[in-house]
Design goal:
The chain is of the alpha+beta class. It folds into two domains: 11-101; 124-168. It has helices at residues 32-40, 45-58, 63-66, 87-95, 103-121, 124-136, 141-168; strands spanning 11-14, 17-24, 27-31, 68-73, 79-86. Strand 4 (68-73) and strand 5 form a beta hairpin. The longest helix has 28 residues, at 141-168. 14% of the residues are buried.
Length: 169
């Protein structure tokens, strides 16, 4: 059996609840109402989302540019236009939800942000993280080493081409 394509699943399961998603503009977009329902455990997720939209707008979060109306399959099997966000904006919405269930996401985001700041100060940490991620995905040490060398060679070639093109103009 081959590896599962990113297009094979139209939903994500979080703590037993389904969050619908769709592939749009080369990235996953998630149903905001589903995210709200999972994190708030409210029976009125649409109302909660409506109130949250107002609050986010008041805070200066430009909803119209960050939310898309995309067709998702509903419980009745039909497709309806649904407010959706990409991963980055899903994290922003999660940060705005005061919920015990959102707390692990918020802590994880803070940790990832801290790690990226450390990587800016010490780029070797980013390369170490990349190696660990490839290893966790099951790639061999030999494959990882070739990948790292290939990236370095491509970067050097790109730099040479940029300099050459710049000097030629």
């Amino acid at each position: 059996m081959g590896k599962m394509s990113k297009f094979d699943k139209a939903l994500v399961v979080f703590q037993g609840k389904e969050i619908r998603r769709t592939w749009f503009n080369d990235e996953w977009w998630f149903s905001v109402v589903d995210i709200v329902e999972v994190l708030t455990e409210t029976g009125r997720a649409r109302k909660y989302w409506s109130d949250l939209k107002k609050r986010l707008t008041e805070e200066g979060f430009e909803l119209s540019a960050k939310i898309g109306q995309l067709k998702l399959v509903s419980a009745d099997g039909k497709s309806y236009l649904t407010d959706c966000v990409n991963t980055k904006n899903a994290f922003r919405i999660i940060q705005s939800i005061p919920s015990k269930k959102a707390k692990p996401f918020k802590q994880w985001l803070a940790e990832v942000g801290y790690q990226r700041v450390q990587e800016i100060e010490n780029p070797e940490l980013a390369q170490k993280r990349m190696r660990e991620l490839y290893k966790a995905k099951g790639y061999s040490d030999d494959w990882i080493e070739k990948r790292v060398r290939g990236i370095a060679i491509r970067d050097e070639l790109t730099d040479v081409l940029r300099k050459h093109c710049f000097l030629a103009t």
